[in-house]
Write a structure and sequence with these properties.
3 strands; single chain; 167 residues; 2 domains; 9 helices; Arc Repressor Mutant, subunit A; mainly alpha
Length: 167
Amino acid sequence: MTDDFVDQLGTAVLPHHVRRLMDALLADVGAVSVKFGLSISHRCCSTLLLLDAEGPIGVMRVAERLGLSHPVIIDFAKTLKNLGLIEEQVSRADRRVRLLALTEAGRLEAARVRRLHAALSRAHDDLCAEAGVDLVAISQTLQASLRQRSLLDRLDLAEKDRPDELD
């Protein structure tokens, strides 16, 4: 038996296990970012790459495409704007809509992010091969299953199937 109490708790604390994995995967991100010459946080990288691929686009569309909340994207946009990597433009179709577009500095940063992502892909592929799992496929499958039936629904089902002596 392991001394790690969380390991002893098993799948009941699956989010704790996932959080530990995420923390381990992110442990060296700061050093890696510096090595690749990035001026942005790893959290903003997908936003920058999306703007490079599809911009200029609105904040709501960025949030939709990245699966993040509108307030998170507004925060990322503020950070990227303060670093001079993006600029806001007014939509010609709807003047109320703010479009986010890369500056020249943003395009250069996006190129650095692509180089970083290529290196990270190789490192993550190596890790997954060593562990004998396709972590991305597992994550996508679990997310799709939770979209079909939430954890709360699964808990309700478990409560109905609970033995009477536990009541």
